[in-house]
DNA sequence: CGAGCCGTTGAGGGGATTCAAGCTCAGTGG
DNA sequence: CCACTGAGCTTGAATCCCCTCAACGGCTCG
């Protein structure tokens, strides 16, 4: 993990970094005015993570929250039997680690899937702002509800039906996480298995089949081109027949 | 649904109903003082639901939140393919419908599984109290995080592994929802299927097998006696081998 | 250029589904 | 009072999809 405190970026005035942030309008502090932002940016740091690096571990005491500026982060946990399961994904604009506000330990781990750039926000800062700015509280609640909805949607769409259906639905979700016009991030087959409750071999077979059908095209390692209408049509067809 | 406004319960003074509430210490307003409670109880109503009756429907505008006083409620949704999936359960002390505070429509439906008694709290009341009492906001956040953790746990424990493992884990969860010393609620096999991502026939086979093994004993329709240590041991053994 | 990770593919077996039939049991009405 | 009814549960048999085990190939990196 690389940390770049914003107040050290002298060539790039601090206030400007936060003000012109590409995810500002989607982020937790999107509701804050320029003036309010000016008073807090010195306490926010830019952090970067390599693929596989943890943003935080399960069981760890949460001291900060993170806003994703770019990249994809997975939430994972190991069940009582020892199975590794990925339960959710986060992308640009999403908030990680809000549980630090209400309980000490993270119930699951957050791990970078691609190179990730994020803003690290100390827990105390959010606490202080919540007390002053009701909009922040409302935004926090909105995000909690969105995460809950996401988790339930994940269960209903990615843990239900045939292996082919699940892989197609996952690809649709990944397409929503990728910047428009760029190739989508294609997880390792083992990761796909942990997301979908399948073995890596089954995931591989489904991906290979979809490549042969032309629904996805290989781009680089871990990335693929998709034609969204074709993918949507394939997913809809899969759901239609029986 | 039966509604009994508290202010009509003349034989039972309103303030007393809230003050002596059996779930008060677990409930959203558990943080409020007797004095604070006295100012709001007239706006809270007791509501009752028969098994199968919706507390609210998916897509409905949420005008109220509910605190469960007794019984079990399921959250359910239908995925894009049309599969019915149950994503979570709520029991005594749990809060339903908090999404009414931050968005208009419910993403999933909440349906009574057993006879349910709940407190209906108007959305505006929670809004007002949140503005005055920071403890309420904190409690709301804590509950949101708990629900999110619950949903991820559900995915990791109930949507992973063999059918036998899933049924055992479900029974453990149901044991936690039942009042101590009473028989647990045993869902219909079709409901079990919707919870576990299995067919009702497979759920039935697993339940029958566990009955033959003596892990559970039939009590009445829809209820069963369990011996918790025996169940825990069976679940642990299942997870241990392979 | 070899080592290791990752992905692919095959063959075989097994567990869940599908389809179907019969059962239990509570509620209903003659 | 009890046959009737229907919803829910159980069980069987056949099928199929996914898992397991295994081998191999490609790619990256030291």
Could you please describe the fold and organization of this structure?
- Two copies of one chain form a homodimer.
- Chain A has 242 residues and is of the alpha+beta class.
- Chain A contains eight helices and twelve strands.
- Chain A has helices at 14-19, 34-38, 123-132, 134-158, 163-177, 189-196, 200-213, 228-240; strands at 2-5, 45-49, 54-56, 64-70, 73-78, 84-90, 95-96, 109-112, 116-122, 184-185, 216-218, 223-226.
- In chain A, the strands form three sheets. The first copy, chain A, has a five-stranded antiparallel beta sheet.
- In chain A, strand 11 and strand 12 form a beta hairpin.
- The first copy, chain A, starts with a strand and ends with a helix.
- The model of chain A has no long low-confidence stretch (mean pLDDT 91).
- Chains A and B meet through strand 5, strand 6, helix 4 and helix 8 of A and strand 5, strand 6, helix 4 and helix 8 of B.
- Chain A binds a DNA duplex (30 and 30 nucleotides) through residues 162-163, 188-190, 198-202, 204-205, 207-208, 221.
Provide the spatial order of strands within the biggest beta sheet of chain A: 1-2-9-4-7
Largest sheet of chain A, in brief, is: 5 strands, antiparallel
Q: What is the general shape of chain A? A: globular
Q: Provide the residue-averaged pLDDT of chain A.
A: 91
Structural class of chain A: alpha+beta
Straight-line distance between termini of chain A: 47 Å
Count of DSSP-assigned helices of chain A: 8
Oligomer: homodimer
β-strand amount of chain A = 15-25%
Largest interface: chains, residues each: A-B, 47 and 47 residues
User: Which segments of chain A are poorly predicted (pLDDT under 50) over 5 or more consecutive residues?
Assistant: none
Q: What is the radius of gyration of chain A computed over CA atoms, rounded to a whole number of angstroms?
A: 19 Å
Helix content of chain A: 25-40%
What is the element string of chain A, with H for helices and E for strands?
EHHEEEEEEEEHHHEHHEEH
Number of strands of chain A: 12
């Amino acid at each position: 993990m690389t940390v770049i405190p914003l107040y050290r970026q002298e060539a790039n005035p601090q206030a400007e970094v936060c003000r012109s942030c590409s995810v500002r309008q989607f982020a937790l502090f999107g509701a804050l005015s320029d003036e309010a932002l000016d008073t807090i940016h010195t306490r926010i740091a830019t952090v970067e993570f390599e693929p596989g690096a943890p943003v935080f571990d399960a069981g760890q005491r949460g001291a900060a929250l993170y806003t994703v500026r770019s990249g994809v982060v997975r939430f994972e946990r190991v069940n009582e039997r020892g199975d590794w399961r990925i339960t959710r994904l986060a992308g640009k604009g999403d908030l990680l680690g809000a549980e630090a506000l209400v309980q000490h330990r993270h119930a699951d781990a957050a791990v970078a899937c691609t190179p990730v750039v994020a803003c690290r926000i100390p827990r105390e800062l959010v606490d202080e702002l919540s007390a002053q700015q009701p909009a922040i509280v409302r935004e926090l609640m909105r995000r909690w509800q969105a995460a809950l909805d996401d988790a339930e949607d994940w269960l209903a769409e990615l843990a239900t039906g045939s292996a082919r259906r699940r892989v197609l639905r996952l690809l649709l979700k990944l397409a929503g996480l990728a910047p428009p016009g760029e190739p989508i991030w294609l997880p390792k087959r083992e990761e796909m298995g942990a997301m979908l409750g399948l073995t890596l071999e089954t995931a591989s077979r489904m991906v290979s089949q979809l490549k042969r059908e032309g629904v996805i095209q290989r781009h680089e390692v871990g990335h693929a081109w998709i034609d969204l209408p074709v993918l949507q049509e394939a997913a809809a067809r899969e759901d239609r027949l029986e």
